[in-house]
Structures are given as structure tokens and as C-alpha cells.
UniProtKB/TrEMBL annotation:
The organism's taxonomic lineage, starting at the top: Eukaryota, Viridiplantae, Streptophyta, Embryophyta, Tracheophyta
Alphabetized Gene3D superfamilies for the sequence: Medium-chain alcohol dehydrogenases, catalytic domain, NAD(P)-binding Rossmann-like Domain
GO molecular function, one term: oxidoreductase activity, acting on NAD(P)H
Keywords: NADP, Oxidoreductase
Organism: Gossypium darwinii
CDD domains xrefs: p53_inducible_oxidoreductase
Name of one Pfam family that matches: ADH_zinc_N
Record bears the keyword Signal: no
Keyword Oxidoreductase: yes
Sequence ranges assigned to domain Enoyl reductase (ER) in this UniProt record: 10-323
Name of the protein: Enoyl reductase (ER) domain-containing protein
């Protein structure tokens, strides 16, 4: 098969489409003929050498895909050859075929094309596990997501609104903010022009928001804490603004704040299967009803993976970027 290979750690130019061996499936895995894969920010970190794949994972990039099942391991009972699915991957999506654990696979939701479904697994599993399973966001609460126009952001706006919470977003252009508004965001903040802490307090009657989903990290940490309501929960999923900082610990105690962080990829096989199951139960009905949709910005052929990475690193996109074999 063909796959995108990282020839050496570096910029987008190090990605090359090469002929490689087909993946071999284990008894608890299935083999998918890839229809499409979606980019994630973690792919760019793996490319430059700062985010190596976990032990036993595919050496190729790609943390989600959609496609058609070509083979099924003997211990897999739910899926059969010919099923159209999407999946959460440890890696390997930037290829014509990929092996994946049977418990990390989802059916294509009604109304979503096989290609566009590639943009759902990573964002759905990330948002559902962090915002709802771990941060316990509930109807009537307020939620702030940074990078509202990103893949994570555009998905979070939709599912959080669907579950009855108020959504605040930050983004860096009026075009992006307008798109977030169209998706259902209640409050749209241009972080280049406004103080998001002041706006969060203003929009909540001085209380602050209940849950924040943050991909920025260090440079936003203290301001995020300042933006939270009593019993507020901050969930960190990225470090685009750095990984090391200082905070005022006396911000935490009086407001009973919780700070958490997590990534999907390092989790155990069993934990990821549980998240996938919860997503199918709680998120897929909203997708099937047309209340939540994958937001696809642009598709590239696998041979132009480098160009796709340049677009992602420019942050000019809104939603997900796909690669198609």
C-alpha cells in the first residue's frame, strides 16, 4: 500500500508518499480500506519529532479515519467485511489501509458521507470525554472553548448547544467568529482585541464560566482560572501557548476549582473503547438528527500531505482538514 512517511523530523517538506507493507491485523482488530483521514494538531508535533507514537502504534501519522472494512480478526464479532465505518486510531491513518482495534470503531452516522465521517472520531471522543465525562458539563451551565473555529471548537459548539449549555468562544478573526456564531455560539470573543476574562465575567453576571476547554496551555492558564465560576472546571488538551508557567494557587482554593488535562492517544485500549462506546450512545444520535455535523474545510490527496500540514500550521482553516488516498 501507499502511506505518508516522515523521512526525518522537520517541517512539512519531510512528508513523502511511499510504498510500504500492508498492516497485519491482530485477532481483536479490523483492517480498513481508508476513504479519508483527518489532520490533527498532534500530527504536526509527531512530524517535527516532539510527539513520538506510543509503543506498538503505527509509525505513520493519522489519528482517525473513515473507510470500508476489508478484513476482520477472529475475536471481533460486531463488524464484518464490507461495513462502512469510522475509527479512532493510535496512528496509521495517512495510508491506503489501516489496522484498528474493533472497540475503537464506529458506524457511519446517517446523513454523513463516508468521506466526511473521517473528521468525527477524534473530535467527538476528545470533546465528549473531557467536557462531559470528566468535567461533567450539564444543561444550564456555561462553557468556554478556545479556538472556536478549530476542529475541536466547531464540534464542541454544536454538541454543547445540543446538550443545553451556553457557549462562549474565542477566535482571532471576525470571519472565524461569524462562523462560530452560525454554528450556535452565544458569545464570540476576538482574543486579539478583547480581554476574554473580562468578557466571560461580563456575560455571566460577574460569576465566570463553569467549564473551559483549552488548547493553549501555559500562556492562558492564570487567565483561564480567573475566568471560572465557583466549582469551575478547566480542562487542558494542548500547549500551543507553552507548557511551563506559574499560577497563583490562591485562585484555586476559594473557588474550589478543578484543573485537568488529558490526551486520547496514550490511554489504554480499554479506556478508549469505553470512550468510543459513550460517544456512540450520547453523540451519534445528535449527529444522526442533523444537530451536529462534521465541519470540513478542505481535502487534499495523500501526496499533498505537506501542503495540508502547512495549512493547519497557518491556522487559516475553519474545522477539519482531510487527506484522501
Amino acid at each position: 500500500m501507499k502511506a505518508v512517511v516522515i523521512t526525518t523530523a522537520g517541517g512539512p517538506e519531510v512528508l513523502q508518499l511511499q510504498q510500504v507493507n500492508d498492516p497485519e491485523i491482530k485477532d481483536d482488530e479490523i483492517l480498513i480500506k481508508v476513504e479519508a483521514t483527518a489532520l490533527n494538531r498532534a500530527d504536526t508535533f509527531q512530524r517535527n519529532g516532539s510527539y513520538p507514537p506510543p509503543k506498538g502504534a503505527s509509525p505513520y501519522l493519522g489519528l482517525e479515519c473513515s473507510g470500508t472494512i476489508q478484513a476482520v480478526g477472529k475475536d471481533v464479532s460486531r463488524w464484518k467485511v464490507g461495513d462502512q465505518v469510522c475509527a479512532l486510531l493510535n496512528g496509521g491513518g495517512y495510508a491506503e489501509k489501516v489496522a484498528v482495534h474493533g472497540g475503537h470503531v464506529l458506524p457511519i452516522p446517517p446523513g454523513v458521507s463516508l468521506k466526511d465521517a473521517a473528521g468525527l472520531p477524534e473530535v467527538a471522543c476528545t470533546v465528549w470525554s473531557t467536557v462531559f465525562m470528566m468535567s461533567r458539563l450539564s444543561a444550564g451551565e456555561t462553557f468556554l472553548v478556545h479556538g472556536g473555529s478549530s476542529g475541536i471548537g466547531t464540534f464542541a459548539i454544536q454538541i454543547v448547544k445540543n446538550k443545553g449549555a451556553t457557549v462562549l468562544v474565542t477566535a482571532g478573526s471576525e470571519e472565524k467568529l461569524a462562523f462560530c456564531k452560525k454554528l450556535g455560539a452565544d458569545v464570540c470573543i476576538n482574543y486579539k482585541r478583547e480581554d476574554f476574562v473580562a468578557r466571560a465575567k461580563e456575560e455571566t453576571g460577574g460569576k465566570g464560566v463553569d467549564v473551559i476547554l483549552d488548547c493553549i496551555g501555559a500562556s492562558y492558564l492564570q487567565r483561564n482560572l480567573d475566568s471560572l465560576n465557583f466549582d469551575g472546571r478547566l480542562f487542558i488538551i494542548g500547549f500551543q501557548g507553552g507548557a511551563v508557567t506559574e499560577i497563583k494557587l490562591n485562585t484555586l482554593l476559594p473557588k474550589c476549582l478543578t484543573v485537568q488535562g488529558a490526551a486520547l492517544r496514550p490511554r489504554s485500549t480499554e479506556n478508549k473503547a469505553m470512550v468510543v462506546s459513550e460517544v456512540e450512545k450520547n453523540v451519534w444520535p445528535a449527529v444522526a438528527a442533523g444537530k451536529v455535523k462534521p465541519i470540513i474545510y478542505k481535502s487534499f490527496p495523500l501526496s499533498e500531505a505537506g501542503e495540508a500540514h502547512r495549512l493547519m500550521e497557518s491556522s487559516e482553516h475553519i474545522g477539519k482538514i482531510l487527506l484522501v488516498p
